[in-house]
Amino acid sequence: MSTAAPLLGIAGLRGGYGRVEVLRGVDLQVNPGETVALLGSNGAGKSTLNNVVCGIYQAWAGTVAFGGADLSGAHYTEVVKAGLIQVPEGRKIFPNLSVLENLSLGSFTRARERRAENIDKVFATFPRLKERTGQLAGTMSGGEQQMLAIGRGLMAEPRLLILDEPSLGLSPLLVEEMFGLIRQLRATGLAVLLVEQNVGQSLEIADRAYVMENGSIRFAGAPDELLRSDELRRAYLGL
Asked: What is the pTM of this model?
């Protein structure tokens, strides 16, 4: 693990909806250049954590530090400006806009002046998107839409990219392809927080892993440590 200050530092984070507490004192870190897997079953609180960290929902308590700045309570536009970018669960692309239009919107808040250059970089990473520049996003396959969602995130020149369930709804072949793309991002030195239910694939590429259950972190450590423990595998991963 890096001895440098964490790029993302979450401490004692609490939050929820109405009077229902979902996050119960979450502590989590992502270091520069690191790929961290956040695992847990559906309903564990993973997406709520993402949305609180990214300023979409307000935290009830706790702190979010990013790149040395305190983003606790910051509006989501300020979070994006800082370079903390989420590719949300379900892709959330604009189906009636073209591939190029969707990508262009990714640089609306950050890196707008380098939009053309970054579009070229996205097309180099995802050649299939270049072939479909003018195609309406809603007419693309699920795998292509996920590529578009990640490409749109890259348009903002992220310092940390949060990928929320990127393999959800994809065929096994496309899941393999998606994790191959995540490996490519990892190789560039981009910090990635990978939020997934696909345990095996995630642990293969992660530097560290967290397991979340009922809004709390139940495990934090090396993937090998998690896989070596029969008790942890049975209790939290269903393996």
From this structure: 0.91
CATH number of 8-237: 3.40.50.300
185 contacts 161 by C-beta, under 8 angstroms: yes
Tell me the pLDDT tens digit for each residue of 95-146. 999 999 999 999 988 888 999 999 999 999 999 999 999 999 999 988 899 9
Q: How many CB atoms lie within 10 A of CB 109?
A: 15
Q: Please state the domain extents for the chain.
A: 8-237
Query: What interhelical angle do 172-187 and 142-154 show, nearest 10?
Result: 20
Report the alpha-carbon distance of residue 54 to residue 210 in Å, rounded. 18
Residue 38 confidence (pLDDT): 95
> Using CB atoms within 10 A of its CB, is residue 54 exposed (0-12), middle (13-18) or buried (19+)?
buried
Distance CA 77, CA 56 (A): 9
